[in-house]
From TrEMBL:
Chain ranges of the Glucose-methanol-choline oxidoreductase N-terminal domain: 192-283
Obligatory cofactor(s): FAD
Entry keyword set: Cholesterol metabolism, FAD, Flavoprotein, Isomerase, Lipid metabolism, Oxidoreductase, Steroid metabolism, Sterol metabolism
Protein name: Cholesterol oxidase
One GO term of the biological process aspect: cholesterol metabolic process
UniProt xrefs under Pfam families: GMC_oxred_C, GMC_oxred_N, NAD_binding_8
Amino acid sequence: MGDQHFDFDQIVIGSGFGGSVSALRLSEKGYNVLILEKGLRREDHDFPTTNLDTKNYLWMPELGFKGTMQFTFTSKTTILHGVGVGGGSQIYANVHLIPPDAVFESEAWTKIRKDWKETLKPFYGLAQRMLGTTHNTYTNVADHTLKAVASEMGYANSFKTVTTGVFFPQADGQQNKAVKDPYFNGDGPERKTCNYCGACMLGCRNNSKNTLMKNYLYFAERNGVEIRPSSEVIKITPLNEDGSSGYELIVKETLGKQVRQYSLRSRGVVLSAGVMGTVPMLLKMRDQHKTLPNISKLLGQEIRTNSETLTTANNTRERLDDGVAISSFISVDADTNIEVTRFPEGADASWVYIPYVPMVTGQGFIRFMKFVFNTLLHPWKTYKVLRYKGKAKNSIILLVMQKSEAFIHLEWRRKWYRLFKNSITAVQKPEDTPLTVSFPAAEKATKLIAEKLGGEPGSALTEIILGTPTTAHIMSGVPMGRDQSNGVVDFTGQVFGYKNLRVIDGSIVPGNLGVNPSLTITALSEFAMSQIPVFSEQKASKIKRIQFSQPLDGQVSELKGTGDLAIALAQA
């Protein structure tokens, strides 16, 4: 088919880490690229000053809320994920960590490839340079207390400050300093140094956070990539059986109260809508619309929650809200990490959306009954922990992660509570390891931290009542493999059974990481894109390549030097 039959060479669905990497690298290879994003596009000043501003913080379009944070409730877990141009990077905690060797040596990773660590090493380096990964050196009493608790629990050497995607002051007294682009030889956007306000997870209004709009998407647009916000893909249809002739997409565009549908044709499609966008979309195309019937039966299977839970140290005698959102972490046993997480003063809704009560341990009905008796015996204590007003200033949330291999599955099923209509359903099978909401070592650490800070340890009420964990880092469900028997996609993200249909996002992460996944998703995306050949030498030759500046003090990457490091990496 001739070029006149296609609106674009590649359409990328979603603008998070996978989608941003894909759009930039495809444009560098001479493709004409469109990004479709269901959420809004925001400038820095558009982010809310508090998460109590529900209309601008939460994504609940049926209520007119078009913010950046979406809560998805399933029968097995509660999932937090970002919406809007830049995806989760708008409101994530900026943490960039490489998983320990044990992760890459686990069965989830080695069953499809034995050399993941060495394979991804250069791409981690490239991701770190693109995202401006830097050592955090700013700590407060919460971090010092975390370090003391690690020592008390026998893991003194485990305390570390995070590496993070933030533009920090380069000298004392240089907070809020506006400067020319410091990362990309002056070709990137102007920036301002961090003021340690703690508002990273509301959306940085200070131009200090290295969101995808400051790097991947910035250069993608420079290369001619078009980004259409408020545009949700509702159907994907190959133009022939295997998609080698291209794809037609039906798009729903919502501009204010006006909604329209239109179709686009593209040579190829990249799904980068995150696990809770990509997996349900492909399940619907395979099992409901029957437009992509050849997708592997492994689609939606073994989705990881990063084995996470949330606890809190409430109402302490200290002010804890200064610094970056997540500043340090410890290990409390061989499998469990804990990170200090903060919000700025006034951003108290984090204790509303996920309310906390005095800590109760255990699982299931026993834990629920402990909560009931606790509440009856200590109503005033329960009220003080549950009360949200003023919480952010002197309380912290502790993000707990494990490397354990528990998982759920997303399937297209008929459920009685949906009047026996088919829908996307989270399930666990009898042979699966149950998800846990109680981590004894983490609960012990939380109690010690709260005690040292003069506060009260708390458990998430949703986890107690529902018996399901909460995660901000849902992963997997579209496994890489060598064929349809052991994967849904190959190592370039191409879906088995189809041509030019790819998945590049957190869905392709093979297993739990035990650390924040953004850097790994970026590295995997860079790895996948590196294997796709140039589409148009003529167009590619006209693209201005990204030139790296000399690394800033504290910047972290094994990819050293200046200039066009991406091309040097490709040649190596």
